[in-house]
Write a structure and sequence with these properties.
206 residues, Lipocalin, 2 domains, globular
Amino acid sequence: MRYLGCSYGHLIFSCVEHLLLVDVYTGTKVKPPKLHTNSDCVIDSAILMAPLSSSNSCLLLFSNLFIFQWQVVTNSWTEYPLVSEHFLIQIVLFKGQMFAIDFPQTLKTISLAPQPNVQEVDVVWGEDIVVGLNYDPWLVVSGDMLLMVDLVGDLISNGTFQVSRFDSSAEPAKWTKMEKLENWALFISLDRRNPTFSCMNPERWG
């Protein structure tokens, strides 16, 4: 089976029209209904919008052409055309909204209701931010902040990480460079199907 991502403690897999969600703690498996797509549609990633135990939980699958939505406990999928000029690299949930970053490092919002819409966010870069050339940036939700982590240089030798905070109070919105993370630890992966996450006071783990 093909790995599509991890969300709310569940690994998400696909095999042709079959989907499988596996609870990483208990091993419990959930099988959504079969998904019938055409041969040109390639599913790249998947996320849960809420824990499976939640009444409003749904599974979203992202392909090069469509977004597919399965409302948990129903027996069908809803298909939405994905109107985006560029490939979406990563999608995160922040304050009830879906944010995505695409190949040319453009920040976007995705909404499904009342009509499916992919909207570019008008955001400027702070003057002291250096944009990395070797890797695409990561979006990380950290408490009440949406952060962008960028790798400047090479990962193996002399690369340095740069963290910027999304400031929506500015007009237009702005990426502001952070000099300190204080006591936040950020977790990222080169495999963009894996979720990014953050934790405060990591020393409590020993």
